[in-house]
Amino acid sequence: MKESASRMLLYPLEVLTKAMSNGRNSRMQYLSIIVVAVPIGSLIVGFLMEAFGRIRTLQLGAIPCIIGWILIATAQNIPMILVGRLLTGLAIATSTSPSIVYITEVATPDLRGSLMSFGPTLASLGMLLSYLKGAYLPWRLVAWLATIYAVVPLFLVQFFVPESPVWLVSKGRIDDAKKSLARIYKSEEKGFGKMSPAEQAFTTIMKENEIKLSEQRRSKRGSLSTKLRAFLKPTGWKPMIILIIFFLFQQFSGIYITLFYAVTWFQEVKSGVNEYTASILVGLTRFLCSMVNTWLLRRYKRRPLCIISALGMAVCMSVSGYFTLQIKNGSESGNWVPVLGLLLYVCTSMIGMLTIPWTMTAELFGSEIRGVAQSVSYAMANVLMFAAVQSYRDLSTLLGEYFYNNTIAAGADAKARRRRAKRRAEQKAQAQASVPLNPTPKNAEPV
Length: 447
What we know:
There is one protein chain. The chain has helices at residues 2-6, 10-20, 23-52, 54-60, 62-73, 78-106, 109-116, 118-136, 139-160, 165-170, 174-184, 197-219, 223-231, 234-252, 255-260, 262-269, 275-299, 302-328, 337-351, 356-363, 370-399, 403-433. By secondary structure, the chain is an all-alpha fold. It has one domain: MFS general substrate transporter like domains (Growth Hormone, Chain: A, Up-down Bundle), CATH 1.20.1250.20. The longest helix is centred in the C-terminal third of the chain and has 31 residues, at 403-433. One of its GO terms (molecular function) is transmembrane transporter activity. It is found in: Membrane. It comes from Cotesia congregata (Parasitoid wasp).
C-alpha cells in the first residue's frame, strides 16, 4: 500500500513542474529523487530487519511515509516537496523489502511466486489510482489521501500479521515462533498420525537454524563477518550477479520510463488522444495484466514468460516508435497506433520482465543472508532505475524515440536462456548447502 501511495505524486508533480516552467531537466530531477532515496533506504533496512524483525521494520517504515506526505500536502515551496518525496522514497524500501522477505519465509513454494506477484499488482493499482486522482482531484488532496493509505496498514499489520517464525527462531524466541506458526497455519488440519503443517514448518526452520549456528561456531567470527563470508560463497554471489543482470535488462528496456513519463510522452507524441485518458488506460492495463500475471506464475515457469515478455515488448515498441516518427514527420494517419503500441507494451511487460525480477530478490538467497542480500539487490535495482530514468532524455535525443529501449528489450530475450541456466546451477548449489525453508506439499506445482 505504501509503495503504491508513494507513486501518487508522479502525475500531479509533472503538471506542477510544467507550470513552474523549470524545463525538462528540472522535471526529470523531481521524478528521479524518489529513485535515489530507495537504494539508501534499502541498504539500511536489511540491518533493521535483522535487528527488529520483518513486521516491526514494516511498521517503522510508516513513519517517514506519513511525515513525507504531510510535508507534500502542506508544501509552500519546492524544497518541501523534495524532502517529502525523499522521505516517501525511504518508506518504499522499508516496506517493500520486509514484505518480500516475509512472504519468502512464511509461504509454501507452490504459493510463493503468486503471493510475491501481488506486490506489483498493488503497485499497479496505486498507479491507476494516481492517474485517476491526478486527473480529477487537486494534488494536495491526493497527498492527504496518500497519508491515510500509509496509516491504515500500520494498524492492520499490528493486529493481524504475526512476526516471521524464521526471524523469531534466529533470535532464540522459540515459543513465539510456535505461536506465529500456529496463527499462520491455523486453517490447516492435522492429518491422521502425521505432524500438522505448523509442526512440519517448525521442524524445518529449526534444522536450518541449527545448520546456520553450527557454521557460525566453526567460523569463530562475528555475525557481520559470517554474512560477508556467506556472500563470497557461490550461493551468495551467483544469485546477486543473476539479479543485477536481470534488473539491468528490466530497467533499460524502458518499462519504468514509460510509467514515469506517461503523461509527458502522450503530450509530446501528439497522437491526437487525450493524454489524461491515455495515461489512465496505461494504469488500468498494468493493473489488469498484473492480476493475470499472478495466475501465470502459478501455471507456467518463469523462463518462457520472460522470453515471451521480452519479444512482445520489442515488437510493440518497434511499432510504436515507427508510427511516432511518422507523426513527427507530418503524417496524419495512424495517430492512434503509438498509444495502442504503448498499451500493448505495458501488457507484455507485465507478463514477465516487470514482475518476475522482483519476486526473485529474496528467494534465491539462504536465510543467513536473505534480509541483507534482498536489500542489496533491491538497492541495485533502484540504482539502475535511476540511471535509466536520468538517461532517457539524452538517449531519446541521441538515438531517436524509444530506439534504445527497443534494442535492449530484444537483447533481454537473447540473455534469457543463460539466466535460466545460471539460476538452475545456483539452486542446485543452494540445495546442497542448506535445508529447504518450507516443507513442499506433495502435490505442489513448480513456481
